[in-house]
Amino acid sequence: MVTQILKEEGILPLSRVRKEMVELAGGKGANLGELLSQGIRVPPGFVITSKAYSYFLDYNGLRDKIVSILKEEDSSEKASERIKHLILTSQVPHDLEEMIYDSFDELSRAVGKEILVAVRSSATAEDIESASFAGQQDTYLNVRRANLINMVKAVWASLYNERAIEYRKSKGIDSSKVEMAVVVQKMVNSRSSGVMFTLNPSNGDRNFIVIESSWGLGEAVVGGKVTPDEVIISKHDLKILDKRVAKKNMKIVYNQGNNVEVPLNGEESESPSISDEEALELAKLALKIESHYGMPMDIEWAIDADLKFPDNVFIVQARPETFWASKEKEKVKTTSATQPTERKILVKGLAASPGIASGKARVLMDVKESKDFQKGEILVTRMTDPDWVPVMKIASAIVTDEGGITSHAAIVSRELGIPAIVGAKDATKVLETGQEITVDATRGVVYEGRIIAEEPKQEHQGTSISGLSRDVLLSLFPVTGTKIYMNLGQPDVIEKYLDLPFDGIGLMRIEFIVSEWIKHHPLYLIKIGKPEEFVNKLADGIARVASAIYPRPVVVRFSDFKTNEYRGLIGGEEFEPEERNPMIGWRGVSRYVSQQYEPAFRLEVRAIRKAREEMGLKNVWVMFPFVRTTWELNKAIGIMEDEGLRRTADFKVWIMAEVPSVITMADEFSKMIDGFSIGSNDLAQLTLGVDRDSEILGRMGYYDERDPAVLRSMKRLIRIAHKYGRTVSICGQAPSVYPEVTEFLVKEGIDSVSINPDTVIYTRRLVASIEQKLLLRRR
Ligand code: PEP
Ligand code: MG
Questions:
Q1: CATH code of the domain made up of 190-320
Q2: CATH architecture of the domain covering 332-454
Q3: β partners of residue 351
Q4: What does DSSP assign to residue 366?
Q5: Is a pLDDT exceeding 90 seen at residue 343?
Q6: How many angstroms does the Cα of residue 679 sit away from the middle of ligand 2?
């Protein structure tokens, strides 16, 4: 007999759910309901609430059984297996089953035929965090009526995925108390789909809505598989300003359990995939979403072939656009809503860090001349090194003559979120100090004059604007099995990126702390009797990041300065020899095991110990850079252990896989460490024998991390490491720049990717779409 409560609250149509109802409908359900209540059309559906789950547990007497399995089994793997089996083989009470079918049939009736649905987990408040950590709660797509109840049980069972149990154990959360809601939504039968932004994604201009559209499922646009049609709409009068119909060479359609790619030619490839009427309807929805969340948004949408306009226009995901929003130094074009006029191009180079900025150029050939550099000026120089960072931080854009996309200038400006063009050959000769220029670093072009006007700085107020908690906001992003880590070196910029959906820091380069906070060479500090200064400042810098994102891990990389860079530190000249080729010289582990540097390495280890033990930041792990041989690593680990740091379940030791010997000997290295992280910048350099900073070879196309030889090495490493139960990540620039490398690595089973802050959202979405495709193929 259905209780009254179950009747009223067991199943709720999305239209009755609101954002406050996280406990009942879970984070995802609450969000979808809230969007609907604001007139933002999402695919119709209903929520099987946590009350229904509870009823199912009680009906089958599962609570006690779950408690005793959790008690009996030490191994989470075994416990997971048994509890999942229990849930999957238990009976859904007949009355609840009937309610679920009734809701499903009602959805089908509205369409006039039996529909397919998505069955999605929707974790309740206390479990949201563990859900995103476990990364494994399930979503099933294209589910038929006949399989609906099984899939609902499968989603319930996913509460007890091994990683979820593990995580809750480590947090002291009682696994038998967590609850789960399930969202069931009509699968959109996508005639067309795509993404839209409530600003112009290429320059941050908030006067526009930009829609990208193509035929079939959205993965074609999100995954960058087609050149989409583009519609630009002005926000203030909702008029279409520009419409570009692209030649779309394929579409992805759902066919008998699989997403299949269908080649297109002839009329369909060249005709517009979206009508003006539909584009304007989407723009209206975009405005509502933007005003609801109070910030620029990045939205996925679809047009359903089964329904009539305007009921066929759906929003499938909406999340804050953070790239432009978080750029504090951003200058947004606010002056005119017209198309840009012809501009004189002064120089061109590689687009290393996207964005656009106008300002006065200042050409500096030596960092010593930088005293007069004014905040907001554009730095034009030959190449940067760590000494330049303080200047880079106050520049509005950076242009360098030399360097490729893995150069110092490129890496630092991406992290700081400053537009940068590198390898612009003779920029320092063509551009003049005081000249007004515009750096369009999305296209890699420097124009004469100011194209964009300055806007007063907009304070980013985090999540409070939307009225949603940070947890709920983050639950708007897709959960991925592959962890999405972020690269970060500058402790103070972490604040700016806290709202991004990353699972940890996969590479914390400590060189920034050393050159900007400590400033002195560690051996010099030892010589003058102040070693503690090094230890304390380094520990503080690490702690700043580790505490801000606790309990997510921070993989701190021991120092990887080259001799020429160390020499730039105060007191450095005395300790650093001149090397002919520092890039392949005394760097990484070869330093730590050398008589000269070993005392300084011990200070680095002490700083890690201090962060972990004195400050209690057990989420700090370490990584050895530029590892060449097993003997040197063995010796370095020995020194670390001598300083009291040993591998444990919560202290992971990783090495960078960037010298090819690490891959050749991956089996041997696997026995010594917990994980590898691919340093694709150096791996490409050393596999191909190409100096990563050589523009001659760069321009000729030699330096390319996508080269089959490099990809083959990465694949081999994943295979061997997994054979030995070790994890593999990547922290070089490749996945931040080439989505195809990310796709390759996810398909090869990489455990995590660590990318630049500006690509976290894009990559999370990309990885989710690739994983979904893999899952569909496997079924
Ligand atoms: C790499 O080599 O890919 C890497 C991440 O290290 P770095 O760029 O600091 O050499
Ligand atoms: Mg490297």
A1: 3.30.470.20
A2: 3-Layer(bba) Sandwich (3.50)
A3: 421
A4: S
A5: no
A6: 5
